[in-house]
Design a protein that fits this description.
The chain is built from 7 helices and no strands. It is mostly helical and about 150 residues long.
């Protein structure tokens, strides 16, 4: 297996993929309930004027589910607000919704998001995290500009 150097951009893409996989998982159903009625046969005249059936994407494969589970474990490395911001952005939520959810201004939420992506990248790369938050913010902003 090759060693990869993780960047905040790679982390962001993995979170977006995980959110997409989560949406494509089949819905949970209560076991034991089913219908014994046969399917109704429809004639052509019944189908006239109806919308075509909605096509769904196929369920994700086992590799994609494994990568999603790995990414969800990364959220435990973050503070609660940072995890909320990262997951909301992975689900393509707008900054206005994210700011309302965590109670921060847009710039503060963006800094928290960038810092969270950099924290995950640093942990995956085996780097030490600075003890002081201001140093971590400076590293995060510098790395975000470079990637």
């Amino acid at each position: 297996m090759t060693e990869t150097t993780w960047s905040p951009l790679m982390i962001e893409e993995r979170f977006a993929e995980a959110a997409d996989v989560m949406k494509r998982l089949p819905e949970v159903r209560v076991p034991g309930y089913f219908s014994t009625w046969p399917k109704a046969l429809q004639e052509f005249s019944d189908l006239v004027g109806q919308e075509p059936p909605r096509l769904y994407r196929p369920p994700p494969g086992s590799e994609a589910i494994g990568r999603m589970e790995e990414v969800l474990d990364w959220l435990f490395w973050l503070e609660a607000n940072a995890a909320k911001v990262v997951w909301a952005r992975a689900n393509n939520r707008g900054w206005k919704q994210v700011c309302y959810q965590v109670g921060l201004s847009r710039s503060a939420a963006w800094r928290l998001w960038v810092m969270a992506l950099c924290v995950i990248a640093m942990k995956l790369n085996g780097e030490r995290l600075p003890k002081h938050r201001s140093q971590l913010e400076a590293i995060a902003l510098r790395r975000r500009r470079l990637s």
